[in-house]
C-alpha cells in the first residue's frame, strides 16, 4: 500500500500536470459518478492536496474528487491520451490540453461537495498529518502521551490513521529503528527520551522518505553503498525487508516478526528492551 510520502509525491506530479488548466475530458469508471463527467469538464483544477494516505483534487466549482489508493491503486501522469501498458483497470482519467492523470485499480473514489468533504469519515478522522509542514515534534509528543493512545502497543498505534495520518508499514519499522525503541513497547512503557526520539523520528523519517522517493536509510550509508554498486533494495531502508541481513549500525542480524497482522523488522541489539 502506498504510504503518505508516496501519495504526496503523486499529488505533486498530478498538480504539476493539472493545476490552473481547464479539464477537457474526464472519465469515471463507476456508474454512480458518471453524472459528474459533464459537470467537471471545462472546470479548472485549483489544487491537489493530501490528507494522510488520501488525495483530494479541487476544482473551481466547490466539488472535490476524493481518492484512496488502498492496496493496489496507482496514479500515472502521462502526455495527453497516452496510456500505460498494464493489466490494471482504469478507474479515473482527467485530461487537459497537454496531460492526462490516470488512476488505476483504486475503488475508493468519490466526488464530494464542501459539506461532504468537511464531514468525510476518513478525512475527518485524520487529526494530524505527519507531512503537514506545520506539525511539530511537540504536537507528536502530545499524541504519544494522549490517554486515548498511550496504552496501545506502538506497532498497532503507528498504523492507525487517527493517531498520525500518513504512516504505514515500512515507515513503522523505520521509525522504531531510528528511535531505538523495541516494537513490543507502548508509549506508557517509554521514558521521556524515548517518546521524544519517537516523535522526532516520525517527522524526520517520513519527510526524508518524501524528499528521496522512499529512502529511509542514513544518506551517507546510501551514498557509500551506491558507490559500491549495491541495488536500491539493498540500501533503501535501515531494517524493513532486510531479515537476516546485518544491521548497518551494529552488524546484528535483522529480525522479522508479525505485529498487528503485518510484517515488521527490527534490530534486536539497537532496539533492545
From TrEMBL:
Describe the location of the Formamidopyrimidine-DNA glycosylase catalytic domain by residue ranges: 2-101
Hydrolase is among the record's keywords:
yes
InterPro entries registered for this protein in UniProt: FPG_cat (IPR012319), FPG_N (IPR035937), H2TH_FPG (IPR015886), Ribosomal_uS13-like_H2TH (IPR010979), Znf_DNA_glyclase/AP_lyase (IPR000214), Znf_FPG/IleRS (IPR010663)
UniProt cross-references to SUPFAM superfamilies, sorted A to Z? Glucocorticoid receptor-like (DNA-binding domain) (SSF57716), N-terminal domain of MutM-like DNA repair proteins (SSF81624), S13-like H2TH domain (SSF46946)
Q: Name one GO biological process term.
A: base-excision repair
Kindly list the cofactors needed.
Answer: Zn(2+)
Quote any Pfam family the record assigns: H2TH
EC numbers, comma separated? 4.2.99.18
Residue stretches making up the FPG-type domain: 238-272
Q: Which SMART domains match?
A: Fapy_DNA_glyco (SM00898), H2TH (SM01232)
Ranges annotated as spanning the membrane: none
* Gene3D superfamilies listed in its UniProt record: 1.10.8.50, MutM-like, N-terminal
Top-rank taxon of the source lineage equals: Bacteria
Q: Which UniProt keywords apply?
A: DNA damage, DNA repair, DNA-binding, Endonuclease, Glycosidase, Hydrolase, Lyase, Metal-binding, Multifunctional enzyme, Nuclease, Zinc, Zinc-finger
Q: Which PANTHER family match?
A: ENDONUCLEASE 8
What's the family? Belongs to the FPG family.
* Protein known as: DNA-(apurinic or apyrimidinic site) lyase
Amino acid at each position: 500500500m502506498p504510504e503518505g510520502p508516496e501519495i504526496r509525491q503523486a499529488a505533486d506530479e498530478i498538480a504539476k500536470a493539472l493545476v490552473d488548466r481547464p479539464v477537457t475530458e474526464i472519465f469515471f469508471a463507476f456508474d454512480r459518478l458518471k453524472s459528474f463527467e459533464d459537470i467537471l469538464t471545462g472546470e479548472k483544477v485549483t489544487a491537489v492536496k493530501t490528507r494522510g494516505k488520501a488525495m483530494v483534487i479541487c476544482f473551481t466549482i466547490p466539488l472535490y474528487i476524493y481518492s484512496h489508493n488502498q492496496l493496489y491503486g496507482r496514479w500515472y501522469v502521462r502526455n495527453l491520451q497516452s496510456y500505460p501498458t498494464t493489466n490494471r483497470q482504469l478507474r479515473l482519467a482527467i485530461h487537459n490540453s497537454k496531460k492526462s492523470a490516470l488512476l488505476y485499480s483504486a475503488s475508493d473514489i468519490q466526488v464530494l461537495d464542501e459539506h461532504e468533504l468537511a464531514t468525510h469519515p476518513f478525512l475527518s478522522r485524520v487529526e494530524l498529518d505527519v507531512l503537514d509542514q506545520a506539525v511539530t515534534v511537540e504536537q507528536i509528543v502530545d499524541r504519544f502521551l494522549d490517554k486515548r493512545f498511550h496504552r496501545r502497543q506502538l506497532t498497532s498505534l503507528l498504523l492507525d490513521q487517527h493517531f498520525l495520518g500518513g504512516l504505514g508499514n515500512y515507515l513503522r519499522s523505520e521509525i522504531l529503528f531510528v528511535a531505538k525503541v523495541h516494537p513490543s513497547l507502548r508509549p506508557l512503557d517509554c521514558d521521556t527520551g524515548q517518546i521524544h526520539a519517537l516523535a522526532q523520528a516520525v517527522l524526520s523519517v517520513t519527510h526524508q522518505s518524501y524528499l528521496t522517493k522512499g529512502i529511509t536509510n542514513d544518506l551517507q550509508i546510501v551514498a557509500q553503498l551506491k558507490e559500491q554498486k549495491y541495488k536500491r533494495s539493498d540500501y533503501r531502508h535501515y531494517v524493513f525487508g532486510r531479515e537476516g541481513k546485518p544491521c548497518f549500525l551494529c552488524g546484528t542480524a535483522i529480525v522479522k516478526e508479525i505485529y498487528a497482522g503485518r510484517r515488521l523488522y527490527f534490530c534486536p541489539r539497537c532496539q533492545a528492551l
